[in-house]
Each structure stands twice: as C-alpha cells, then as structure tokens.
Specification:
Largest sheet: 7 strands, parallel
Number of helices: 12
Helix content: 40-55%
CATH architecture of one domain: 3-Layer(aba) Sandwich
Bound molecules: nicotinamide-adenine-dinucleotide, thymidine-5'-diphosphate
CATH topology of one domain: Rossmann fold
Shape: globular
CATH class of one domain: Alpha Beta
CATH superfamily of one domain: NAD(P)-binding Rossmann-like Domain
C-alpha cells in the first residue's frame, strides 16, 4: 500500500459517510481527510462513531472555491482523492439546475486542477477516484441493462451535471495522464440517508402516518443497492481497479416504485405492530416528476468478474437493517427534518 493520505469529499453525506467510516476503520495507516461544506445533506452526526479516531480529520469547505481547494491540496499533499461531494437530488436539480453545474461540474474541475498542480504530472502512485451515477446513461425501456460502454444520454439537470463531471475526469486522464477511476452506481439505500429520497422519505412518512407520495403511476423502475456494498465496491475499485477505467456498480435488484413502497409498508406494519395493510392505505399518487426516467438497471459483471465484488445482503436483509436503523435513530430523523426540510417538503409536495 503506497497511498497514505486520502481526501474524501462529501464525507458527511449519505454514501460519503459510509465510505469514510470504511476507510478509517479498515486502513488505520491511512490519514483520511473528509472535506464537506455541510449543506442540508451533510451531517457530522453521521460520523460520530469515528470522529475521535486519530487517522480521521474533518475540513469544512466548499469545492466550488478554487483558491481554497488549491490551498488545501498544497497544504496536505494528498496521495489520493475519492470524490463524492455533489448536489444529488433530481427534484432539486429540476428547481435549481445552476447549483448542480457549480457544485458537480465546476467543483469537480477545481479538484482535478488542484490534484494536477500538486502531482506535477507524476501520477504513478496517485489516484483520482470519481464517484458517479448510472443516471448518466439515461433511461431504459423494459429490456436491457447499462454497460460501461453504453452511450451517455443524461435526461435530468442532475444527471447532465454528473455526466459532464465524468467527462472532465476522463479528459484529465486522456490529456494529462492523470490516474483516474470512475464508478457509476445504481440507487443506494441504507442508514443515514436524507429523507428526501424515495426509501427514507417513505420510512419517515410511514412512521408518522403521513401520505406516501408516489409519482405518476408508480411504474418507474430503479435498481437498488445497499450502501455498505457500494462503499466496499469503492474500496475494491480504489485499490484494485485499473487506471482510466469505469466500473458499473449494482445489485441486480430491480423494483417498480409502487411494488417497493408496498413491500416497505408490509415490513413496517410488522415492525410497528400495525395490522397488515394499514400503512398501504397512506399511498397517494401525485403528479409525476418532469422528465421522469422510466427504468435504470445496471450490469455489474465487469466489477464482479475483474475484482471479485458481489453484494453481501439481499434486498430483504438490507431493507430490514435500514428500517431498524431508522426506528432506532428517530432523534437523527427529527434533527434533519426540522427547519429547512419543512419548507422544502411544503414547496415540493403541496402543489403535486
Ligand atoms: P448526499 O447529498 O447525501 O451528500 C452529498 C454531500 O456532499 C453532503 O455531505 C454535502 O454537504 C456535500 N457537498 C455538497 N456540495 C458541496 C460543496 N460545494 N463542497 C463540499 N461539499 C459539498 O449524496 P449521496 O447520495 O451520498 O451521493 C454521494 C455521491 O454519490 C454523489 O456524487 C452522487 O452523485 C453519487 N451517487 C449517489 C447515488 C445515490 O443513490 N444516492 C447513487 C450513485 C451515485
Ligand atoms: P429518488 O430516490 O429521488 O432517486 P432517483 O430519482 O435519483 O432515482 O427516486 C427514486 C424513484 O422514486 C424515482 O422513480 C422517483 C420516485 N419517487 C416517488 O415516487 N416519490 C417520491 O416522493 C420520491 C422522492 C421519489
């Protein structure tokens, strides 16, 4: 292991906190720096269990601030970067696309420039790992899966900004020879997930007996992966993935939204001691999302065959762990759903 000082961006968010935890715990000889702006989606409570570890350091900062980023890289001379910081919610990108361009595109280029300027074209033992999404490939019909070779065809401002950042990362590899790795993952679920995304929003609303807003007819399909399996895939790709390569990550676990919500309702009826079918009565069909991608599905055979990765839990196991975490951490939910969240919820759902 030659890479020792690693910058993880967005480490206070949902997936980032699982990646930070994994690297801090599994690699005690690494110094892990977590850079996060702490937007509405970033929460240091997510990392309470490791915050006092000697190989963990937190830096509050904004990746859109080029001067600050340059200074940070020159001060710490990072050996590697795992870049997760982003605006990540499609619905918010529909309301405010520019914020997604600034954070996801300009922020990524700022990080690439800073890495380039401290690594001086000596990239052999340096790694820039960019964490991306399957949404860059656009939408599928009833058949087929996304491969690493599938042409990019992003449909939402969010996926367009992620696609653009992927292209910049690849361009720094091609043009300057930077050692880069990119992964494109399907929808994640698990603990510490901000309750604006489908699964944690539904869990929160079921707990509070609030309507369950299903967009359109609920027929859209997503491919769900347990977040800890994503973090382990990132670890595998960071350490064993090939330079300049892209890896798709997914759990081969497709669900129609409405079927997923019903399954979750049944699970929560059991957990909350409700009669079977009680939570399902909360389902409420609402106006569809503009430009709503129909189906995503990942072919992860490259990652599985080349690096030996595979998911560690079934969806049933992962979802049960997730629900148990939310039930045991209602204080966390309460903290993140007060204040701005209420305004967001009001403006997003009141008019649907
Ligand atoms: P998240 O919204 O939960 O967390 C994003 C984090 O980035 C937050 O901690 C936030 O404070 C931080 N951040 C935002 N803007 C910043 C800025 N300007 N400077 C510094 N920090 C900033 O997101 P997530 O769901 O954990 O996603 C993490 C990454 O994984 C993103 O790049 C996303 O595109 C990608 N991804 C997510 C999923 C998913 O299902 N959630 C799937 C595939 C890929
Ligand atoms: P989301 O969790 O926002 O992830 P993404 O849009 O990035 O895939 O949404 C997952 C699916 O659930 C998507 O098809 C939109 C749908 N959805 C609802 O039906 N209701 C909701 O309240 C939300 C947030 C999402």
């Amino acid at each position: 292991m030659t890479t020792k000082k690693i910058l993880i961006t967005g480490g206070a968010g949902f997936i980032g906190s699982h990646v930070v935890r994994r690297f801090v715990n599994h690699y005690p000889s690494y110094e892990i720096y977590n850079l996060d702006k702490l937007t509405y989606a970033g929460n240091l409570e997510n990392l309470k269990d490791i915050e006092n570890k000697s190989n963990y350091h937190f830096v509050k900062g904004d990746i859109t601030d080029a001067e600050f980023i340059q200074h940070l890289f020159h001060e710490h001379q990072f050996d590697g970067v795992i870049h997760l910081a982003a605006e990540s919610h499609v619905d918010r990108s529909i309301s405010n696309p520019l914020e997604f361009v600034l954070t996801n595109v300009v922020g990524t280029v700022n990080l690439l420039n800073a890495a380039k300027s401290i690594w001086h074209n000596q990239y052999a033992d340096k790694i820039f790992y960019h964490v991306s999404t399957d949404e860059v490939y656009g939408q599928l019909g009833d058949e087929g899966k996304f491969l690493e070779t599938t042409a990019y065809s992003p449909n939402s401002p969010y996926s367009a900004s992620k696609a653009s950042s992927d292209h910049f990362v690849r361009a720094y590899h091609h043009t300057y020879g930077m050692q880069v790795k990119i992964s494109n993952c399907s929808n994640n679920y698990g603990s510490h997930h901000f309750p604006e995304k489908l699964i944690p929003l539904m869990i929160n609303n079921i707990m509070n007996n609030k309507p369950l807003p299903v967009y359109g007819k609920g027929e859209n399909v997503r491919d769900w992966l347990f977040v800890e399996d994503h973090a382990r895939a990132i670890d595998d790709i960071y350490h064993k993935g090939s330079n300049g390569e892209t890896y798709n990550i997914g759990g081969n676990n497709e669900w129609q939204n409405i079927e997923l919500v019903k399954f979750l309702c049944q699970l929560m009826d059991r957990k909350l001691g409700r009669e079977t079918g009680e939570s399902e009565k909360l389902i409420s069909y609402v106006t569809d999302r503009a430009g709503h991608d129909f189906r995503y599905a990942i072919d992860a055979s490259k990652l599985m065959n080349e690096l030996g990765w595979e998911p560690s839990v079934t969806f049933e196991q992962g979802l049960e762990k997730t629900v148990d975490w939310y039930l045991a951490n209602q204080e966390w939910l309460k903290n993140v759903t007060t204040g701005n969240y209420q305004q967001y919820y009001q403006s997003m759902y009141a008019s649907r």
